[in-house]
Write a structure and sequence with these properties.
translocase, alpha/beta, seven-stranded mixed beta sheet, Cobalt-precorrin-4 Transmethylase, domain 1, ATPase_a/bsu_AS, 434 Repressor (Amino-terminal Domain), Bovine Mitochondrial F1-ATPase, ATP Synthase Beta Chain, Chain D, domain3, two-stranded antiparallel sheet, 16 helices, 3 domains
């Protein structure tokens, strides 16, 4: 099983098991394990058979229906360094943004809509119930606003199967099951070109095990990065994507991503020690690790086009190829003598 290109049929799980958190717990599955299987953090080939059987039972389907073989997941290159490297956007999939208020999730969504619109995608926002003035910046890059699931279906159906769409909705529509109903209806008429973004404007999503149900991509925002104004404050360790499954991605990308995550994990541990005891207490080898992690974290910040008037900095787009080249150079020590501040909020090096 491990050698095959396998992945879960996440869209089927979404349709068949609306409240996957409760359902998973009821049959003895950890929601985190289910989430990691959906996003590819745990490969299907290495998962326990009993876990897959339990998921198939929940969905009322066979293992052959639950497991998709041989289909490569395409990535939409956003040219946002930390997203493309650590948790790529799965084309036609569903991505969940997990953040509290003031962590910058709406800026990230607005920037993505700006960039995707420039790539030819149609941007659609299903308006949440209630007043959310903070959505105003996002609306500037929204081409179609809708106010109900039925209206959203009609607008997307009218655009047809040829048009690629970036669609966003608040969690309130997820809880009701309407989003999954919409996705099912669109699949029935052959439309699978919709990439969906789910967010929670209340911020309560941070306290839930599986906040949006099965996802192809998960972007977990980090309070510490946000507090230190390291934007975008998307956690490079806890964020993940089904695009990252070994069979779906370029092996060089996979290798560099794994090395970068390992460095950042150790850097975070050392950062806690440095905050208490200072850098001088670190052994020489650990100090080098700390400094490289500091430089990599600085490099992963990036100026956004939608924030130019607020920051005074020109937005930057960095191809995945350029990101991989720069990150490998940082990991190999090529920029050990570079001032950390020179790497903050730049594009490519």
């Amino acid at each position: 099983m491990e050698s095959e290109n396998l992945r879960l049929n996440v869209s089927l799980l979404r349709r068949r098991v609306p409240n996957l958190t409760s359902a998973a717990k009821a049959v003895g599955l950890r929601p985190a394990t289910v989430s990691n299987l959906c996003t590819g953090k745990i490969s299907v080939g290495k998962s326990e058979v009993r876990t897959l059987v339990a998921l198939a039972d929940l969905a009322g389907c066979s293992l052959d229906e639950l497991i998709i073989r041989g289909e490569k997941i395409e990535m939409i290159e956003t040219k946002i360094k930390t997203l493309d490297l650590f948790a790529p956007l799965a084309k036609g999939g569903t991505v969940g943004l997990v953040a509290r208020k003031q962590m910058g999730q709406l800026v990230v969504l607005s920037e993505l809509f700006y960039r995707l619109k420039s790539q030819g995608l149609t941007t659609i926002l299903l308006m949440p119930e209630g007043e959310f003035p903070e959505l105003q910046d996002v609306l500037e890059n929204v081409e179609v606003k809708t106010y109900s699931i039925d209206e959203t279906y009609e607008k997307i159906a009218a655009l047809g199967v040829e048009k690629e769409i970036a669609f966003a909705a608040d969690k309130s529509h997820v809880v009701s099951g309407e989003i999954y109903e919409l996705q099912g209806r669109l699949q029935q008429i052959g439309i699978d070109t919709v990439t969906s973004f789910l967010l929670d404007l209340t911020g309560d999503v941070m306290d839930e095990d599986l906040p949006y149900g099965p996802l192809e991509t998960l972007w977990q925002f980090d309070a510490d990065l946000s507090a230190r104004q390291c934007y975008p404050a998307v956690d490079p360790i806890r964020s993940t994507s089904s695009v990252l499954e070994g069979a779906h991605m370029d092996q060089n990308h996979f290798f560099i991503q794994q090395r970068a995550q390992k460095l950042l994990r150790r850097y975070r541990e050392l950062r806690s020690l440095v905050n208490v005891n200072g850098e001088e207490k670190l052994p020489a080898a650990e100090l080098q690790t700390f400094k490289r992690g500091e430089r990599l974290e600085a490099y992963l910040t990036q100026p956004f086009y939608v924030a130019e008037e607020f920051t005074g900095q020109k937005g930057e787009a960095v191809t995945l190829h350029e990101t991989l080249k720069d990150v490998q150079a940082i990991l190999d020590g090529s920029y050990d003598k570079e001032d950390v501040d020179q790497l903050r909020f730049i594009g490519k090096i």
